[in-house]
Design goal:
Blueprint (H helix, E strand, L loop, with lengths): L1 E2 L18 E6 L8 H4 L1 E6 L7 E10 L3 H7 L20 E9 L11 E4 L2 E2 L19 E2 L12 E5 L3 E3 L6 H4 L3 H14 L7 E5 L6 H11 L2 E6 L2 H9 L4 E4 L14 H22 L5 E4 L6 H7 L5 E4 L13 H4 L4 E4 L5 H13 L5 E2 L1 E3 L4 H9 L7 E4 L17 E2 L5
Helix pairs in contact: 4-5, 4-10
Length: 417
């Protein structure tokens, strides 16, 4: 372990197929858990060699997600609980890059291939991988959070099945920005809910990282969606992305569950939820067939209430709390469904990525920072001062590189719930 100064990560003196002995990486160690600006430190560290069915990728750009704010803090659990065999954590669960070296058994990829990396890993020996779903495998982990060797380094080590062809119409930073949130939204709607043309969908946080892709997926499928946002500017963005309309959640703030409401407070809260449901029906023309959930405690009682009989509430997170409290009578009496969803499998990632290549779905990017900005980017997230998706240049010398074909790139926008 050797601390280093801010490097020029775009400089490299080896050709594809040959790895240097050392690389520069942003490393978290258990003894410095805390604020991201301090927990992330530049170190010179060994370059991992690919094992069987593994690939080492030269990272050109990386995407920033909240999971490595948690990694820096050591909360709610330490990442070293997931990979105790390693004394360091290199985070980063989104990346674009170039295949640099392949391990034994890899036949689909070769050095020089340009790729995007999806973040699901599982053991090839788990039977679930070969017949049920890799997401059900006991070994399933999120690369760059529950594993080390993530994307905030000059090189990263991944399973070969994590690689997807990089869309040629995107720059390196655009291609690194979308995987985790987009592939999660794709599985939620397309596979878990069987999204169809004509469906009506309510999307919480429609201008956020998940929501911008849920909105576009609805438009691409011919479904009508309504976005819940936190202001007019964000509402205009989701309409631009294909939503039929939007609701400013601040106008119905009283519907949010805080927990511990008295009977009188709950009656008042439920009354606001009724008003919200009426507003949803007025815009969509009927109650939603699907509610796209990731907010959790504050919104879940309203989600269960407003979805139509036999409708589906699909949830992948609980950003306001995971201890959900709702009136279950509206679930069983009206035969509604609650569906849990977590990231996506390799096939879903491939199919979702094809829509990016076709220009049917576009990344939404706020800001691109240099390799020296990893700690700062996560601190912005920690302090809620970011206004959308952040990409980090690693091997790419500057913004705008990597695009080799015509086609729509990212939408540059300030986004948020």
């Amino acid at each position: 372990m050797a601390p280093v100064g801010a490097p020029n990560a775009s400089e490299l003196n080896v050709e594809p197929g040959t790895l240097p002995e050392r690389m520069t990486a942003w490393v978290i160690r258990e003894e410095r858990f805390g604020e991201p600006i301090d927990a992330f430190q530049l170190e010179e560290i060994e370059v991992p060699d690919p094992g069987a069915l593994e690939v080492v990728v030269r990272v050109m750009a990386a995407g920033v997600n909240y999971n490595n704010v948690w990694a820096a803090l050591g909360k709610p659990v330490s990442v070293f609980r997931y990979h105790p065999e390693e004394d360091h954590h290199i985070g980063g669960s989104d990346a674009s890059g170039v295949v640099w070296k392949v391990g034994p058994g890899v036949t689909r990829w070769k050095p020089g291939d340009e790729v995007v990396i999806h973040c699901n890993q599982a053991s090839y020996e788990d039977p679930e991988v070969h017949g049920l779903d890799p997401m059900a495998a006991p070994s399933q982990k999120i690369w760059g959070y529950e594993t080390s060797w993530g994307s905030f380094a000059e090189f990263t080590k991944v399973q070969a099945q994590q690689l997807i062809p990089k869309p040629r119409n995107l720059t390196w930073e655009e291609a690194a920005s979308y995987g985790l949130v987009y592939f999660t939204a794709y599985r939620m709607l397309i596979d878990q809910c069987d999204l169809q043309a004509g469906h009506r969908v309510l999307i919480w946080g429609a201008a956020g990282g998940l929501g911008v892709f849920a909105t576009q997926l609805c438009a691409a499928a011919g479904a009508e969606c309504l976005g819940v946002v936190s202001g007019e500017a964000k509402g205009e963005l989701v309409v631009k992305l294909g939503a039929k309309g939007y609701i400013d959640r601040n106008e119905f703030a009283g519907m949010m569950r805080k927990g511990g409401e008295t009977p009188e407070e709950e009656k008042e809260r439920f009354g606001v939820s009724r008003q919200f449901g009426k507003a949803v029906r007025e815009i969509l023309g009927d109650a939603p067939d699907i509610v796209f959930e990731h907010v959790g405690k504050a919104t879940f009682p309203t989600s269960v209430f407003v979805v139509k009989p036999f409708g589906k509430v699909v949830i992948c997170a609980g950003t306001t709390g995971f201890d959900l409290d709702f009136d279950v009578r509206y679930l069983w009496m009206r035969q509604k469904q609650i569906i849990g969803s977590h990231f996506a499998n390799a096939y879903e990632c491939y199919k979702a990525n094809e829509l990016i290549e076709q220009g049917s779905i576009r990344p939404v990017l706020w800001r691109t920072m240099g390799f020296d900005g990893v700690g700062e980017a996560h601190q912005l997230m920690r302090d809620n001062k970011h206004l959308g998706k952040i990409a980090i240049l690693v091997g790419a010398e500057r913004e705008g590189l990597g695009k080799t074909a015509d086609g729509p790139g990212a939408i540059m926008a300030e986004v948020g719930a």
